[in-house]
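Researcher: Batch entry, complex prediction.
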Amino acid sequence: MNEELASTVISSHLESENNNLELQVGDGHLSPHIDDEQISGSSGNDVDDDNDDNNSVGKIDELELPDHDFSKLLDFDTKSDDALLSAANDLLNESNGAESNLDSQHTDLINEEDQDVEMNDSIDAKESTAELVKPDKDSPQFIINEKNNLFNRQRKDSLTPIMFQKHELPPKNFSQLNSSDPQKNSEDSNAIIEEQPTISAYARLDFQSFTFYVQTLHVIIGRRSENDFTHKVDVNLGPSKSISRRHAQIFYNFGTGRFELSVIGKNGAFIDDVFVERGNTVPLRNRTKIQIGQIPFQFILPEQEKDKIQESTKPSPDIQTQKIKKEETKTTKKPKKATTSVNTTPVKKEAKSKVTVDKIVPSIPETPIASQTTSTTTSPKKKKQKPAAPKEKKQPKPPKKVYTLNEIPLEYRTKPTFSYSTLLTNCIRKFSTPKGMSLSEIYAGIKELYPYYEYCPDGWQSSVRHNLSLNKSFKKVSKEGKGWLWGLDEEYIAEREKQKQKQAEAAAAKAQAAQMKLEQQQQQRAKKGGDTVTARKGTASAKTNTNKGQTISQTLAANRSTDKKTKLNDQQRTMKYLQEQLMILTSDRKGLSKPDIANILTQALAMTINQVTQAAKTKGIAGNPLTALMDKNPQHLTLILAAAVNAATSKVTKGKVKQLVTMPPPASMTPSVSKAKATTPASTETASKKKSTAASSSKTATTKASTAKASAAKASVAKASATKASAAKASAAKASAAKASATKVTSTKSQSPSITKSSSTTKTAVTKTTDSSFDPSSLSRFFQPKQPARVPTPPIAKQVVPQKRSLSGEYDDATDDSSSEDESTSSDDDDDEGSDKDKNSDGSTSSDDDDDDDDSDNDSSSSDSDSEEETKEEEKKDVVGSASGQGDNVDSGLKTNTELMNSAVEGTISKSSIDENISEVLTTDQTAKIPISDDTSKPSISDDISNPSISDDISKPVDAIVENSVNVGMGSEANADDEDDGTNIEKWQFDNHEEEPTWSLPLVTADEIDAKLDVDVDVDMDVEVDEKSLSLDDKVMSEINDGI
DNA sequence: CTTCTTTTAAACAAAT
DNA sequence: CATTTGTTTAAAAGAA
Ligand SMILES: [Mg+2]
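Model: Structure tokens for the complex:
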């Protein structure tokens, strides 16, 4: 039933769109009569009406989609499409369709979604229309009322197809929805897509993964799950419950002559980073940032952007908006004259002329922040203002802020490579009191240790919980109000380590033995003369193939080199990492042409390599410094890369563009690794918790006192970090990431991660502070640690992060299922008094306990019954056999980042000799070219790449090497779609790039690079680098030295 | 291609 | 009634 309708509607829409396209002309102004049309209009097809409206109104412009301009918002790959589609259709699974959508990129399908929706609604449409339009009612209230009616309106916008490329229609959607005649739909859509070169619309909404064209004067934005046919929305933000079915609407206010957005949803929205409560209406300016739920997008008005683009890369001019707030909302109502009427929708011509902006709006003269943007380090100002606004006293839940790339300090944009178990171990070691740490404290601790987690979405917390419960290394030490205080099971950890080592050794021995054998065999063969080349088939595993039948030389190489191999791999890994980071850093091309970008990237890479190498040499450090740096402290590397990119940029553009990448304030970055970081975000939640009754609090307090020692220790640590933080901040106004936290930091510090519950009074105060200062939610979806959306994406998939995970593995034995056994076995002492204890716990806990427990679970959840069934099964836990790994010593044991780093460095260094390193580096340099261009030069396959013959390489021509490296760096796909130019480029690692654009390599040859380095670049390097990179290097170096 | 580890998500239960 | 906190189970991605 619905399906049929749907199909019909869709087709009609499509047609209509075509019409629109044709219509393009656009008359220009918005004439009042339009209203009439709209109101009266819409009989039958909504669509038609819409079109009419458009026509009458005149659509202003055609937007071409200069993707590059909006590179941030638009670029990227197809996969997203799939995601969207799936989300749209149904896939609840994907769950936050929103998120997945966002993450993914590219064209949208929303249209389709819309269509669906529309269909459903189509019926209702008519009446709604009437209301909408009435110009008079600008007032928000009015609007709101309308909403109540829900169903009604239907105007939809067009869907524009945007470019689309590859993604063919998603069969799924259509098939599902319109079983009736998928073909038709598909065809239509295709047709449209192809045909339309430009799109007529009043404005557009740029989402991360798609673009919505506003082609009607009223657009409803909200939530809608697939099966929900009760209402329709023009822009479907996915199933997330945090978004109301009708969360916001964008409409044209004839009175003020501009588009405005009314927030209808319960949870409000962020407009230019300012929280706007439900019921308020705010004017939309070009590039106004909007965030609803977890979905950020931007309102874009047509205009000629080209020029601007360059200058103001930054999309957000926000500040004023903030001020606007409610008051402004009111402004809407202001009577204003017709004269300006058109402005908002600046038709190219008319708009310009008319645009007298409005005095009405106070905002305008903002400082040209945008322009400064790059140069000034940007960050400071932005911070998030949200704290102020969002804090409503009411119940409304504090929405979470999603950070935008630019809002996140460079250092914290990349996910730490540590596994969660390592993260937890480090965190607990650092902050835990003997009694353990509560979950919230752990969260806070991790954020403090690794600020990355401050800015990313909260998915990681789920992983943390998962690890705590599943991994035996973590045990419940004592109970706290609601949950448990977690601690480390040192014994368990120790044992595990042992086993591992054993295994490792065994493996190593084994490997050696194997090699020996092989060697012998080969030698024999050689003698016989049977060494004819057996081409190596590529078994991927390096070792394996190496051994397998290879030439003697190869064999030899293999033998001597475990090192070599690793080195080579390291090198590849490093190059890959560097390339990826560069792509990430330069995601915003700022209008530069490909050749320029290619040039810049190439030079930047060369500079970075050169710089780091030099520094290392100076310091007399051996080993491939780049690899060491990458492993040890990627943040620094990123900074260096950023500096190099900027240096290269200004060089290439001859000063036109000084900063392609936003640099965080120098001071801020300096933070020594070893120490705790300044920013302490922390316990946001605490607030809620505090509620603890006075009694309890008092108890706690007591507890604390008793525990003093532990807490004291903690406190000290915390404070230390705090102090540093504050100092740092003070020194440099950097503002960057740190932001508001200053106050907060202190407060937090005092609390330190652990304290949450304790200090009652103090706590409250503290908590408050915390709240105001910090706001963890918000626009961050850009990056995020998580895996790609679980969309059914087929092949693709690339790994973003080059870094290797710590394979060693710390987890546990994990999976052991028979938890029961262990417990029983381990026996610890259990205590069962559980229930009693719990009750008392609060009280008793506070007092003593001391050692008391170790208890492993027991009471609470333990399901003993179950245990019975399972028998031990394979117990072997101890034995464990996993094999492989040689992993050296695992880091699990490591405590501090510093330690980790040091250890890493040592290892690296020890292996290689200086000379070799240098040579390697050089080689790398040559490799340095970064290809840019979309076409698919050719797909290189990972497999092939995987095992390049190493030993031989030396002799090999540079070219070969280059190829390898290149391949490694970027993914290639066979069929590329070209189409967009600037559009795709890179994406956040978080996004998981599935497919990377394929780059062809135009580039510079090794010689060229050398030349550049020698001549121009060098100079630049010195200049630019001195301050930033160099300083960084020094630090790094010093650390390295220390380590050594 | 299979196995093992780790990460992400979700569904649920319990406690607040 | 909404959140937290914990357990479990799946599935997907990576490394071996
Ligand atoms: Mg555990």
